[in-house]
Amino acid sequence: MRLSGTKILLTGANGGLGRAIAAKAQAEGAVLALCEKTQELADAAKAALPDNANAIALAGELTDEAAVTEMVATAIEQMGGLNGVVNNAAMLGDDDGMPADTSLATWQATLDTNLTGAFLVYKAALPHLIKQQSGSFVSMSSVVAHSASAVPQIAYTTSKGALEAMTREIAMAHARDNIRANCVAPGPVLTPRTAHYFDSDEKWQARRQHIPMGRLGRPEEIAALVCFLLSDEAGWQTGGVYRADGGISASYVVDDSKGGSETP
Question: Which CATH number is 7-248 given?
Fold first, then answer.
């Protein structure tokens, strides 16, 4: 029960990773504020927990500073404090692809949600954590921040790289306040949101060749790493990016489907 009594705010709580992180954190003893963009989604995240007695469901649009400030303040009031934050909410637009093909609207919406949303959560939570001189942030990045995707997604990739840079900056700015900030960078994980990328043998084989371990990640594997970073066991770890990607970012592979030169 390494998170016993720890009060944690989790955004994107109703997604596949969000639900896994919530379940793992609760099993470790945490009290949770499950945050989503609508109350219906937040309530669904709470209902999915094995035991929802130690969880509250809150709604707030992450691109609205006033809404985020109110959501964080309400979480602190109702939980009786705040010890950890998981920035998990993210979006990937349908037309997020090659740079020339991605609409400006998708580019802006992706950065607003994935980057500005996390910034606003940091901004709202930091004064409380500074006052108590303790706390841990974990922001969900992606392997594409380190190894460009074989299937282009320019806005999403950019947002995750910037999220890591922002998190390092926050970690260094508040290290002497005993506030830690780290990122987890998953590779492809099988969730309801990502299932359509792998729902045929052809799609799966096209992606499998880029994963050294030859399988998708499991939500509970990511959740375990997140909860470790939230805990006091990770008390000397800040400013880091922890990759959980089946070896993708450590490998040297290319998509050779378009062919290439016959000679070196």
Answer: 3.40.50.720
